[in-house]
Amino acid sequence: MWNESPALRNVQTVVGALLLTVFATGVLAQSAAPAVQAASGTLSAVVTTNPYGMEALWEGSDLVTKVVLLLLLIMSMGSWYIMIVKVLEQSKMGRQARDAQAFWSAATVAEGTAALSQDSPYRYLADAAGTAVQKHHGLMGHIPINDWIAMAIQRAVDRVQSNTQNGLAFLATVGSTSPFVGLFGTVWGIYHALTAIGISGQASIDKVAGPVGEALIMTAIGLAVAVPAVLAYNWLVRRNKAVMDEVRAFGSDLHAVVLGTIKN
């Protein structure tokens, strides 16, 4: 009889062990597949059916809660709109302040005024001073020319300052009232939580978590609306002060120049 060599027997043993390992792995994978699918299905169900998110808050809320949410949304959108517009306006006034330095190089006040852009506040001050000189007659002629020009420039400066403050009152209002609007939503949500507990007769976590979660979300939204508005208000007021300092300095120099040209 033909005898197998030891090397062949070793190869057969290794091959048999490998086949057994592959078979066992396949069996384990097949048995584990349903468990993995079930776990993934459960996870996806948990992710897609969150009963305490913003979507659930909107769908399960009543008219009062929806009005509060819409009001906070309007406040937030208005605040961000004003922030962006005011930053752009202040940056534009900063560029116009640099361009206004060319005014002092002109031969006459009229030439310097014509060199300024039409929408520049510095052009508005120069036009106000020129108009004051032209209208210094009749009853206005009884006012000393020095005081008359100073009054005209000051009125122009006050109007420029009033325009720079547009929208800041809205930011101040949002910053001071939106936390209370969110607090109203919180109180309303807690009221619904207590109502749900009273109707069900149970104080279990599933009866309390939803309404209380809605109440806390309303508080968070109110604070999220108020904090940027307050920070933006303080920042924009400080930037307005720097811009208006440049305008007032130009007005003072303009008053001296116009008065000097008249006396000469």
Brief account:
The protein has 8 helices and no strands. By secondary structure, the protein is mainly α.
Terminal Cα span: 138 Å
Helix content: over 70%
**Major sheet attributes:** none
- Tell me the radius of gyration: 38 Å
Structural class: mainly alpha
- Percentage of β-strand residues: under 5%
Number of separate strands:
0
Q: What's the SSE pattern?
A: HHHHHHHH
Total of domains: 2
Low-confidence stretches: 1-12, 22-29, 38-48
What is the overall pLDDT average? 78
Shape: rod-shaped
The helix tally amounts to 8
Structure characterization notes:
The protein is mainly alpha-helical and 264 residues long. It folds into 2 domains: 1-47; 60-263, no CATH class. It contains 8 helices and no strands. α3 runs parallel beside α8 (205-263) and α5 (121-134) packs across α8 (205-263). The longest helix has 59 residues, at 205-263. The protein is rod-shaped and about 90 Å long.
Descriptive labels:
rod-shaped, mainly alpha, disordered N terminus, 2 domains
SSE topology sketch:
Blueprint: H1 6-48, H2 54-60, H3 63-99, H4 109-115, H5 121-134, H6 145-164, H7 168-200, H8 205-263
